[in-house]
């Protein structure tokens, strides 16, 4: 049987299609594979180190200092960024209270006569503001938050290494909840006339009980051997509720320890 060239054309064409299909498969399979470790999209953002200034910028507002907010019959909520090294001309600030001096001016003062206070505070260290003036000698950052009728919740976050701070919280009617940064090192003064107090497991584990006197329970968070010099003022909490419980925990700590149980000293002095 003689096969002509004309008869072979369909077979040749079919074989060419098969070979072409085989040639395409490796490329298609390669496209389905994940990229090599060295491959990357040039348009993808490259991670960079986060600086204290970046952290503050993420909140969309500039830091301030010596901020005073007084409400009569409304709640106070929000985020406040305080840079204690930020210089603000005195004539731009609210008038001082009678008998108060500029040295005693609070870096942040929040008060409402009737309402809830629920705020987050970011404290900036010197590295967060390159244009800041040198800090005053032995000057702590002072924060006072209060409500005549309502619960108070304050969360304190540290941006970089911050100066020692004093946080004074008071309410006549309601619970007090305070979250502190891990860098906190200093005394706690807790006064709850009706409700007791509770420290989270994390805070309690770093605290030394100093007993109770005149209705105020005292602890020291951290190594108190460094507090032997009375002139060196470190961090300090002064918390008081006339009718409500006081709770303290770390700002990055899960709330289960505080809400479900207290440590030995928490139960002992409640």
From TrEMBL:
Residues 1-28 have a biased composition (Basic and acidic residues). InterPro entries: DUF7330. Residues 1-51 are annotated as: Disordered. It comes from the Eukaryota. Residues 65-253 form the DUF7330 domain. Pfam families: DUF7330. This is DUF7330 domain-containing protein.
